[in-house]
Amino acid sequence: MTDFKHAGFIGMGVMGEPICRNLAQKCGLPVLGYDSNPAPLQRLAAHGVAAAASVAEVAQQCDILFLSLPSGEVVADVARGPQGLLAHARQGQIIVDTSTSPIDTTRALAAEFAARGALFIDAPVARTRAAAEAGTLSVMVGGDAAVFARVQPLIATFASEITHCGPVGSGQVVKILNNMVLFETVTALSEARAIARRSGVDPQLLLETFTRGSADSFALRNHGLKAMLPGDFPEKAFSVEYARKDLRYALALAAQTGVDASGARNVERWFAAAIDQGQGDRYFPVISRSIDAGPADPD
Question: How many C-beta neighbours within 10 Å does residue 6 have?
């Protein structure tokens, strides 16, 4: 399957743990993992993942490393720290960032790793934790075509859709804009639900009817029917705080490219309102509560 000898994985959070498990079960390589929280590594031990004591240990032992971290800022810290990945990078080593990170951070890190003979590519993941568990994520890859060809079989252990988007940073562009469109769609569904309820139409009837018309979408069937209708906004899912982080990356990209992303700025307003109301740790479609309450219906 691959010409690599030893795979590493750093970051065993909501998405990282199931991604790492699929990688270990299917890639045919020994996998060494690290996280500051020992609990997921204890669970992954049963699936053949060995626990490292530090980021440095993973960097020293593995010729290909995967990152699944909360933000681009954390990715940069893991790379640039005193005993980070750059300090131990070597010729031919490949680092694959499955996190969602700013494009400028991704491209800067790629240049820093290249100076040490290593390769840094972006491969942010889309879809839900359930998809991560099932190994059916969608992955958008930014990097050289030859490197993509080498890494693709490993990514295929946890993804059913893999798209080569172009040079380094391109995967992040596509992923960030994917999320921006998702957030705007969830906001539109929330607005429609609130208007229907105030107009005397059952929101469940509204959203179920949407599935049979041109307003049908992934967001409707998953975020609308499975979260907004039943009011199910758990913690330890894709929270408002994390969604807002991704949205801010999109807004920064819009500013850099001179696009007036007014729809995205509207979503930012609702994310801020949900956080102010103490809902920041909940699954991000919880913004539907804020939209439904609104100034005309504060209760």
Answer: 15
- Residue 106 has which token pair? 């991704």
**Averaged pLDDT of the chain:** 95
On the question of pLDDT at 86 being above 80, the answer is yes
* Three-state DSSP state, 283: strand
> pTM for the whole thing?
0.93
Check whether 1 has a pLDDT greater than 60.
no
Give me the half-sphere count of Cα atoms (radius 13 Å) on the Cβ side of residue 138.
11
Compute the distance between CA of residue 141 and CA of residue 134 in angstroms, rounded to an integer: 20
Query: Which stretches of 29-76 are assigned E, i.e. beta strand?
Result: 31-34, 49-51, 64-67
Q: From CA 283, how far away is CA 146, in angstroms rounded? A: 38
Does 297 score more than 90 pLDDT? no
Catalytic residues: 175
The residue among 102, 125, 107, 143 whose CA lies nearest residue 253 is 102
